[in-house]
Design brief:
Strand content: 25-35%
Radius of gyration: 46 Å
Oligomer: single chain
Helix content: 25-40%
Order of helices and strands: HHHEEEEEHEEEEEHEHH
Number of domains: 2
Number of helices: 7
Length: 264
């Protein structure tokens, strides 16, 4: 019986780790250990390839910046020649300087400056035609205009209406400051339908302030010297028809802070 069992023994039934060349059994590596080693090796190869790819990749060129970003928009106003002048002020005491500029929309602004800041009778008026200014408060308008002249507004009073040849003009007492301070009357006027407006100030001398009559005289003395614009001609023709005849030589000296010697 024992011999039969031995005869029935088949080589295929022998353990895998049996080595026929040796009477001892040989242990093979465990399956899970092989899996770990292969996985670690694969991960190492992938990391190595990724690092080499980053080094060999050429840097991406920065996209071209659009030309619209590099080019600044043109300024809304550009200076133009004021000779010959478009407007004038009927006066013969203080020197008059004129500056002009043109808006991109085609509008024009002419600034007339009487004397220098700090002088008695110093005045400034900017006339805008063909362009409608944005709506602003009176104080903001005066502060903006003062800044353009290198000045600041340190005090302002409640505005009121002053009658002129152009119609009621908004005005208020202000203190302008630069190298010194000067008491002035600031003003502004606008006719949106005619695309015509002006604003500025007239200053007194020393501690003497400018009154409404002196301010009205300055505005009434603004005259149109030359133009081919029929609408502008119509504005001044209508204004001259409404002009009060109270701004003669005596009022001219009064606008400089000098006592009027008599009624013209």
């Amino acid at each position: 019986m024992r011999q039969a069992i031995i005869d029935d023994w088949d080589e295929d039934d022998a353990p895998d780790d049996w080595d026929e060349r040796s009477p001892r059994r040989v242990r093979r590596p465990l399956p899970w250990l092989r899996t770990i080693l292969l996985s670690g090796l694969s991960i190492g190869v992938l990391v190595y390839l990724a690092q080499n790819q980053e080094k060999t990749e050429a840097p991406r060129p920065i996209g071209a910046i659009p030309a619209s970003v590099l080019i600044a928009p043109p300024p809304q106003w550009r200076p133009i020649s004021a000779s010959p002048p478009l407007y004038g002020i009927d006066q013969d005491t203080l020197p008059l300087r004129v500056q002009a500029r043109e808006h991109v929309s085609g509008g024009r602004e002419d600034t007339l400056v009487l004397g220098g800041f700090g002088e008695a009778g110093h005045g400034r008026i900017s006339v805008v035609q063909g362009f409608t200014e944005p709506s602003r408060s009176f104080f903001v308008d005066i502060v903006r205009r003062a800044a353009e002249a290198g000045l600041s507004v340190t005090r302002d009073a409640q505005s009121r209406l002053v009658p002129t040849k152009f119609g009621p003009v908004e005005a208020a007492a202000v203190t302008l400051a630069g190298a010194s301070e000067q008491e002035c009357q600031a003003f502004r006027f606008a006719d949106p339908e005619a695309n015509f407006a002006f604003q500025g100030w007239l200053c007194g001398g020393g501690e003497q302030a400018v009154d409404e009559a002196q301010l009205a005289c300055l505005i009434d003395k603004v005259s149109l010297l030359r133009t081919d614009d029929p609408s502008l001609k119509a504005i001044f023709a209508r204004a001259e028809a409404q002009r009060a005849q109270t701004c003669g030589p005596g009022a001219r000296t009064a606008s400089l802070g000098v006592r009027n010697p008599g009624r013209p």
